Amino acid sequence: MEKHVQTITIHGGKEDYRPVKSLHPPIYQTVSFEQRGEALITHRDTELKYSREENPTVMLLEKKIALLEEGEDALCFASGMSAISSTLIHFLGKGDKILVPYESYGTTQKLIKRLAEKFGIEPIFVFPDTEEVLKHLDKGVKLVFLETITNPTLKVFDVPRIAEACKEVGATFVVDNTFATPVLYKPLRDGASVVVHSLTKYMVGHADAVGGAVVADLETTKELWDWRNNLGGILAPFEAFLIDRGLKTLELRMRRHCENALKVARYLRNHPKVEEVLYPSLPESPYHDLAKKLFKDYCAGGVLSFKIKGGRNEVIKFLQNLKMIFTSPSFGAPETIASYPVVSAAKQIPPEIREKLGITENLVRLAVGLENAEDIIADLDQALAKI
C-alpha cells in the first residue's frame, strides 16, 4: 500500500512532508494519518495523526511563513482573529494588564473588552502614538499589542523603541504585521516577541481564503499549539494550499501595490475635492521619516486614506459612483477596494474617540490593487467629479 506521507530532508536537515517528486505541494485533505509502530513526530514534539492537531499542507505553509518573518516557528489558524484570540488567551490571565492603542482593529478591541469583562484582564487603551505607548508602559503591563501601521489613518509605530522598552519592563510585545507584510518589514528583527497576521489579506493575495498566523520562538509556538488544539482553530488544508500559492507572488504583488498606492496618493493630494491624504510615504506625512527607517524601499504598503471635502453624504455619493473600484471592508486583493471606516473597521470605536483619532465622517480608506494605476485614478476622478 502506498504511503501518502513521506519524509524528505531539506534546508540543512529540516523535515518536510510531501511526495518527493511533486512540483507543487499536495493538499492533504484527510482527517487521520496512519499510526503503525513508531509515530511520526513533528518539530513541535507532536504526533502527525489527526488534522485538528497537525496537517502536512498546513505545516509546510507554517515553515514558509516562519522563514519570511525570520522567526523560529509559525502556527496557522482558521482566521486572523483565531490567531489573535489564541495569543491573548495564552499570554494573559486574571489581573494582567494589556496595553493597546485605541486605533486597533475593531474586532480586536471588542475581543479585548470581552476578555476583560469575562476573565478579569485589565486593558489600557492609549492614543496610537509611540510616545503615548512608552508613557503608559511600566512593570505592571504584561503584554503590548499593536499594529505596525494603524487602520485606517496609517499611523506608524517606532517598533524598535517600543520593543526595547518592553524588554526593560518584562512585557511581551505582540505586533500585528498584516498591513506591512514581511516583504516590507520584519518586526522580530527589531525585538518584537510575537508577530501575528491575517493571512486573508496580502499573504493569500486573491481574497479567496481566510486564515491567520502567529510567528514566535519554538517554545511559544509549542505552548500556543495546545491552545490551537484545544480551541480547534487550525487552518484547513485547502486554505493552506491557497495561501501557499499566494506566497509565491507576495513580493511581486507588494511592489505593485506600493507603486500604485504612491501614484494614487500623489493624484489625490492635488485634487480640489480632497481635503487630506493619509499615506506615510508622502513627504508631508508626519510618519514619513519613520516609514523610511522601518520599511523596505520606504514603501508604506498598498493602503491609504483620504478625506473628501464635505461629510457623510459626499462620501456615500462618491462610493455609489465608483465603477471599477469595489466597495468592501477588506484589503489585500488584486482589485482596488474602497471602504468607509466609520461604518466598517472603526465601527467598534466610540464616536468621540474616532474623532480624536482622525477617523472622521469624511474619511475614505482605499486599498489600492494591482490594476493599471491610470485606470484606478480615472475611476476616482469620475466619482469625485459627481460629488
Care to describe what's here?
This protein is α/β, with parallel strands linked by helices and 387 residues long. The chain has two domains: 70-247, Type I PLP-dependent aspartate aminotransferase-like (Major domain) (Aspartate Aminotransferase, domain 2, 3-Layer(aba) Sandwich), CATH 3.40.640; 250-385, Aspartate Aminotransferase, domain 1 (Alpha-Beta Complex). The protein has helices at residues 56-69, 80-91, 106-119, 130-136, 159-169, 181-184, 218-231, 237-247, 250-269, 288-294, 312-320, 351-357, 373-385; strands at residues 7-10, 14-17, 73-77, 97-101, 122-126, 141-147, 172-176, 194-198, 212-216, 274-278, 303-308, 326-327, 337-339, 363-367. It has a seven-stranded mixed β-sheet with strand order 3-9-8-7-6-4-5, with helices on both faces. A five-stranded mixed β-sheet has the order 10-11-14-13-12. β4 (97-101), α3 and β5 (122-126) form a beta-alpha-beta unit. It is globular. The model is unreliable at 1-14 (pLDDT under 50).
